[in-house]
Write a structure and sequence with these properties.
87 residues; YjbJ_sf; mainly alpha; CsbD; CsbD-like domain-containing protein; 2 helices
């Protein structure tokens, strides 16, 4: 079970619930970042097929941005696992 912490208002929070909320937000972020990557790939391909360099460059930029966000997600996951291992 999770750790119990009493906050300033006297409410007891249980660590398991907090972790579920974190997991849910983390999962939503991962899905959003993957969708951004797919959107960028679609723009990149559409720009390539139509010889629209601007659209292609925009798609590539969106893919890079999504990849950076996904790398951040992986770092957060690794940090969380390391924290849990030390607990």
């Amino acid at each position: 079970m999770g750790s119990r912490v009493r906050d300033g208002a006297g409410v007891i929070r249980i660590g398991v619930i907090d972790r579920r909320r974190e997991w849910s937000m983390s999962f939503q972020d991962k899905v959003q970042h993957k969708a951004e990557e797919a959107k960028g790939a679609a723009k990149d391909k559409a720009g390539d097929l139509t010889d629209d360099e601007r659209l292609q460059a925009e798609g590539q930029a969106e893919q890079r941005s999504a990849n950076v966000k996904q790398a951040g997600d992986k770092v957060k996951d690794a940090a969380g696992k390391a924290k849990d291992a030390l607990s």
